[in-house]
Amino acid sequence: MRTFLDYVRRYEPTQIVTISDEVPLDYTATAMAFELERRGSSPILHFERITNHDLSLLANVCASRDLLAKSINTQTENFYETFGTSLDNLIPAEMVSGGSVQEVVWEGSDVDLNKLPIPRHFAQDAGPYITAGMLAARDPDTGVGNLAYIRLQVKGSRRMGASLHSRQHTWDYMRRAELKKKDLPVAIVIGAHPAVMLAGAAKMDIDQDEYDLAGALLNQPLPICKARTVDVNIPANAEIVIEGHLLAGTHEPEGPFGEYTGYVTGRSTENVLEVSAITMRGDAIYVDIIPGNSTEHLVLGRIAKEAWVYKRMKEVLPFFVDFHYPSSGTHYHCYVRIDKSAEGQAKQAAQLLVALDHYVKLVIVVDKDIDPVDQESVLWALATRMQADKDVSILKDTLCNQLDPSSENGLGAKMLIDATKSSSFSAEKISIPENAKRLAESLLD
Ligand SMILES: Cc1cc2nc3c(=O)[nH]c(=O)nc-3n(C[C@H](O)[C@H](O)[C@H](O)COP(=O)(O)O)c2cc1C
Questions:
Q1: Which atom number of ligand 1 is nearest to the Cα of residue 210?
Q2: What percent of the chain shows pLDDT beyond 70?
Q3: In the predicted model, what is the mean pLDDT of residues 267-281?
Q4: What is the largest CA-CA distance in the chain?
Q5: Cα of 164 to ligand 1 centre, how many Å?
Q6: Domain 68-288 is classified in which CATH homologous superfamily?
Q7: pLDDT band at residue 214, thresholds of 50, 70 and 90?
Q8: Distance, CA 339 to ligand 1 centroid (Å)?
Q9: Measured torsion, CA atoms of residues 373, 378, 380, 381, in degrees rounded to the nearest 10
């Protein structure tokens, strides 16, 4: 992460704001990020001095698609392709003996989460939350490594609540560890190069390790080392690592917490993490992801997953052009553009999309003349090319993200809308002669 920060400070100085005044820990980063968003920007925020804490706090590292693209040496418009190529060309991580992340070691009675600047983010939160914690663990059956963001509520000097609500690999590891009546050894990685942060948010096969994707994104093996008290590998140059176990068969209230939906949620798998060690760099920076429906949370929650879904859509559907997830839909709405050559393709594209991404509950499929990023244009297609009795399909009782406040018991419905022109559609789009357009432009210039 240090090389990335140096790069931003040197070449993109407007993309990082340093706050040198001493500020209170709770709510400050969230309030600052949301206010800057209201004013139209989402820079990285570095709070150098936090009241009653030694470590500084860095937030909004992953809020900019442009910076994330640059961090993996590509441009925004090529992000999906670069990411997709990396998914096909993993570079195995390289084991090193010890790393800068173990320069400082807190074990035994030294372990104290309260010494880290872990903030409260929203008025309704149940407590301080680690939001940028990537949970590293190993498959209880195969030993393959996994990395995933999991929100963590600090409940004591060595106890945290965790929610595995997205029911992906960590959830499955835990389920299988519990079948064996075993705790799951884990390490929480805080602050790593954005390539690792992107890999942590990625969808991958269960037999693939996110560290190898980070290597592919970096175009060189990611240095990893062994955690000290658990059998889990960690990025050797991370800022901070918290080691411990997710306890089998143990559940305690966790939350409420302000989630990406923009609502407070008490929905949680209510797991418990007991900490055995905390290690960090000598000059560690604590990294926070602004939660709620902040730009950072929505960008990071989507960008890597989008790249995976995009790759699969391209592989399966020759007529798929591209898609866009509008921020207003949090992670639940997706506009898909196709180059339609036969009836039924819109529905096929929509069905594949919701199969690949179970968070999505509304898909609108448009023709190739409609830009999915331009919401007005999508809604115009909906208004003029769609008839609800024929073009709307509803799938009931499908797996959804449990944090959707309108869902019940982890089940929800999907609405698939075909807003493409049907074969009998005969209306012609209005157009203006090119020379008249040019004249208008010259008169206005
Ligand atoms: C910032 C952020 C926070 C997240 N918080 C959680 C969480 O608290 N619980 C959860 O189950 N998933 C959470 N997710 C989603 C998972 O991390 C994500 O689905 C990940 O790809 C799962 O990886 P896996 O399939 O390797 O387990 C979060 C994602 C992001 C980007």
A1: 26
A2: 100
A3: 97
A4: 79
A5: 8
A6: Electron Transport, Fmn-binding Protein; Chain A (2.30.110.10)
A7: very high
A8: 33
A9: 140
Angle at 265 between CA 112 and CA 267, to 5 degrees: 85
Cα 199 to ligand 1 centroid, rounded to whole Å = 11
With a cut of 90, say whether residue 444 has pLDDT above it.
yes
Q: 265, 293 in Cβ contact below 8 A?
A: no
Atom of ligand 1 nearest to the CA of 169: 27
**Contact status, residue 251 vs residue 270, Cβ threshold 8 Å:** yes
Query: Residue 364 has what pLDDT?
Result: 98
Give mean pLDDT, residues 76-92. Answer: 96
Contact between 58 and 288 under an 8 Å Cβ cutoff? The reply is yes
Q: Is the pLDDT of residue 166 over 90?
A: no
Residue 303 CA to ligand 1 center (angstroms) comes to 13
Average pLDDT over residues 425-445: 97
Q: How far is CA 60 from CA 16, 29, 41, 114, 359, in A?
A: 9, 9, 11, 22, 23
Give the pLDDT mean for 81-107: 96
- Token pair, residue 247, equals 């306890």
Question: pLDDT at position 375, please?
Answer: 97
Q: Where in the chain are all domains bearing CATH 3.40.1670.10?
A: 317-418
CATH 2.30.110.10 domain residues, the chain: 68-288
Whether 98 shows a pLDDT value over 90: the answer reads no
Residue nearest (by alpha carbon) to ligand 1 atom 6: 150
- Residue 202 CA, closest ligand 1 atom number: 21
- Mean pLDDT, rounded, for 387-403: 95
Superfamily of domain 317-418: UbiD C-terminal domain-like (3.40.1670.10)
**Would you give the DSSP letter of residue 369?**
T
What type of residue is 12?
E
Ligand 1-lining residues (CB < 6 angstroms): 146, 148-151, 163-166, 168-170, 201-203, 289, 297, 300-301
Q: Indicate whether 348 pLDDT > 90.
A: yes
| Residue having the nearest C-alpha atom to atom 30 of ligand 1 | 301
Residue found under tokens 């060189």: 220
Q: How far apart are CA 57 and CA 71, in angstroms?
A: 20
